[in-house]
């Protein structure tokens, strides 16, 4: 594959000549550029044999650490299998990253293509006309997202954390089925931080890989001696539930204004728009996850239990 040709096509966002990508003997034709992550590009491709559409995630690795992380991402796909977590259909990696001789390697992951786009796209569309989802729909979507997160937290012997849960990392299948994607930030959930250097390292990784408006407070300012666990994801889930109700994370406005998200998150000053059609129960469910002290946050099992209770309460009112 001519990687320069592909990168030019990705930059231009158009197909001037049909670019072909080969993964383990299967040929795919690049149809369009779908988006860029911090470390990857995603394109829409078509299988030359079946004409089925897929998304292909291409990661260019500039050094051994990049390569290790990209290969680890493929590994996490094989560990976490759940209907609400995106499936890896195929993958390959080429070359060896060596910064000394300026050599890069490529990791390609073939993923299902979700034509409905992301939850962020859906909420953006709804925000334009204040088209609120019903409380029942919100809880049903959120419950499925939680079930997907539980698949990470359930991994044995050590739980995994996604660490970049946000509405832009959830694609929508048929009947608004949410599917968690982008396993590039997945890591061992429980980290024992011993010393200032370890704290700084974790803080730097979080700054690089966890989106600010959804990042847990303990990742903004990592203490020198502490334990970080899977409840970083619970904070992100609180932000996602807020966004399902009000179209954006509670910290998006701060981020867009260019004010300090870290400060807003640490103070957890959560305000709720007045005109939205949700009662106090929904707000309390959101607030139960947005606790600044991670030790006060519930684990995923309790969150799922609370969502089931909220759904039962809604249904009893009908």
UniProtKB/TrEMBL annotation:
Keyword Nuclease: no
Class of the enzyme per the UniProt entry, highest EC level: transferase
Cellular component annotations (GO), alphabetically ordered: Golgi apparatus
Binding site for ATP: 58
SMART domains registered for this protein in UniProt: S_TKc (SM00220)
First and last residue of the signal peptide: 1-17
The organism's place on the tree of life at top rank: Eukaryota
PROSITE patterns attached to this UniProt entry: PROTEIN_KINASE_ATP (PS00107), PROTEIN_KINASE_DOM (PS50011), PROTEIN_KINASE_ST (PS00108)
The enzyme's E.C. designation: 2.7.11.1
GO molecular function, one term: ATP binding
InterPro entries hit by this protein: Kinase-like_dom_sf (IPR011009), Prot_kinase_dom (IPR000719), Protein_kinase_ATP_BS (IPR017441), Ser/Thr-specific_kinases (IPR052239), Ser/Thr_kinase_AS (IPR008271)
Domain Protein kinase: 28-311
Catalytic activity: L-threonyl-[protein] + ATP = O-phospho-L-threonyl-[protein] + ADP + H(+); L-seryl-[protein] + ATP = O-phospho-L-seryl-[protein] + ADP + H(+)
Keywords, ordered alphabetically: ATP-binding, Kinase, Nucleotide-binding, Serine/threonine-protein kinase, Signal, Transferase
A Pfam family that the UniProt record links to this protein: Pkinase
Keyword Transferase: yes
Family: Belongs to the protein kinase superfamily.
UniProt name for this protein: non-specific serine/threonine protein kinase
Gene, per the UniProt record: LOC107269261
């Amino acid at each position: 594959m001519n990687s320069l040709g592909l990168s030019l096509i990705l930059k231009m966002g158009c197909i001037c000549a049909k670019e072909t990508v080969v993964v383990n003997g299967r040929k795919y034709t690049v149809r369009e550029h779908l988006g860029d992550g911090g470390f990857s590009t995603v394109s829409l491709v078509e299988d030359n044999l079946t004409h089925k559409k897929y998304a292909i995630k291409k990661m260019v690795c500039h050094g051994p650490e990049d390569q290790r992380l990209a290969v680890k991402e493929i590994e996490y796909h094989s560990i976490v299998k759940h209907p609400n977590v995106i499936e890896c259909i195929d993958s390959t990696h080429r070359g060896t990253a060596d910064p000394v001789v300026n050599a890069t390697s490529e990791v390609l992951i073939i993923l299902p293509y979700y034509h409905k786009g992301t939850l962020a796209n859906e909420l953006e569309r709804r925000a334009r006309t204040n088209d609120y989802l019903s409380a029942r729909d919100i809880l049903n979507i959120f419950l499925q997202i939680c079930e997907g997160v539980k698949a990470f937290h359930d991994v044995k012997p050590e739980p995994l954390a996604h660490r970049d849960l946000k509405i832009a990392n959830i694609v929508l299948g048929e009947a608004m089925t949410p599917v968690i994607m982008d396993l590039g930030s997945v890591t061992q959930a429980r980290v024992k931080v011993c010393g200032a250097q370890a704290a700084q390292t974790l803080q730097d990784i979080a700054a690089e890989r966890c989106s600010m408006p959804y990042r847990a407070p303990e990742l903004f300012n990592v203490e020198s001696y502490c334990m970080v666990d899977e409840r970083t994801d619970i904070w992100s889930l609180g932000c996602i539930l807020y966004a399902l109700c009000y179209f954006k994370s509670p910290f998006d406005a701060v981020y867009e204004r260019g004010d300090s998200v870290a400060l807003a998150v640490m103070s957890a000053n959560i305000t709720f728009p007045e005109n939205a059609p949700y009662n106090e129960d929904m707000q309390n469910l959101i607030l139960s996850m947005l606790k600044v002290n991670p030790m006060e946050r519930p684990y995923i099992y309790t969150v799922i239990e609370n969502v089931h209770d909220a759904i039962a309460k809604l249904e009893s009112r009908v």
